[in-house]
Amino acid sequence: MKNTKKNGLLLVLGGMLLIGTSCQEKPKPPQEPEQEEKETVKPPSDIISIRESKSLYDNYTKNRIAPIMAYEKEMNDDEDFEAARFVDFDYKTMKQYIAYVEQEAKKAKVDVSTFRLYFANYPNKEKFRDGKKVVHPRQNSIFVLPTLMKDGQNMGFYIGADGQAKLIRNTIKGKEQGYGSLENKTQKSQASFVPSFSSPTLLQGDQSLIMNHGGSGPPPETDF
């Protein structure tokens, strides 16, 4: 009889334990973090068709490459010279450059209005003034210069030793420092040619925002 009561008590306790366990909430599975839906980027209005790009490429071949080759042959007696057809910068470098310019402009409390690409020509030397190797002597190239809007014009700038934005034209040409005023406001924008570097007045601690030393050369077989 005692065993029967004991077994019955155990059954009751076991049932209560099962009921209590079943009443407990089961742990919820970990939820995956919600991913932000990125807004679809629309193509800029300045994108051109492949057909148009081929036409521009052919125009350059006809109107620029031939005179360059003739000039190099006459001036340097170089039959093997090939005129450069492109300049490229790797994707990570471009992203870093844009982020760096935005960072420095923000610290100087100015807004970047454009990135200006100047045509350039490498010297017929082994090294640049900064000691870097001239990979393609005599080849055409470009350098990139950020601009800010001043008096209705886009003007290239750099960051001075005082942390303020300075106009390239004011410093290179020996005009007044800073970007508070222009000498001749009636002068047209000089975006069509490279500023003269004959009398630089850059100070120690000034920070240039100009990028160059990209890869350049004759066109690869896969393009155009």
Distance between the termini: 101 Å
* Sheet/helix structural class: alpha+beta
* Shape verdict: extended
Q: Strands of the largest sheet, in order across it?
A: 2-3-4-5
Number of helices: 4
**Any idea what the radius of gyration is?**
33 Å
Helix percent band: 25-40%
Summarize the helix and strand pattern as letters. HHEHEEEEHE
- Average of the residue pLDDT scores: 76
* Fraction in beta strands: 15-25%
Largest sheet: 4 strands, antiparallel
Topology, number of strands: 6
Unreliable segments of 5+ consecutive residues = 175-201
Attribute tags:
about 220 residues, extended, single chain, four-stranded antiparallel beta sheet, 4 helices, about 30% helix, alpha+beta, two-stranded antiparallel sheet
